[in-house]
Specification:
The protein contains one helix and no strands. It is mostly helical and 58 residues long.
């Protein structure tokens, strides 16, 4: 196995992927689409608080 050839092939594949990603990001910007929010950056769901009439039921 030629390690230097393998590294060369992987670097070529990496460059192709970077170009594809850049193209897709440009298309997304041109279409006016927003990037999806990062996980955990949204509003947190909160538990509904119980009213005074519901508390004795528990």
């Amino acid at each position: 196995m030629d390690l230097s050839r393998l590294i060369q092939d992987l670097n070529a594949e990496k460059e192709k992927l970077e170009r594809v990603i850049a193209s897709l990001e440009e298309l997304q910007r041109a279409a006016g689409l927003a990037l999806p929010p990062a996980p955990g950056s949204g509003k947190r769901l909160r538990r509904k608080s119980l009213g005074p009439e519901e508390r004795p039921k528990i």
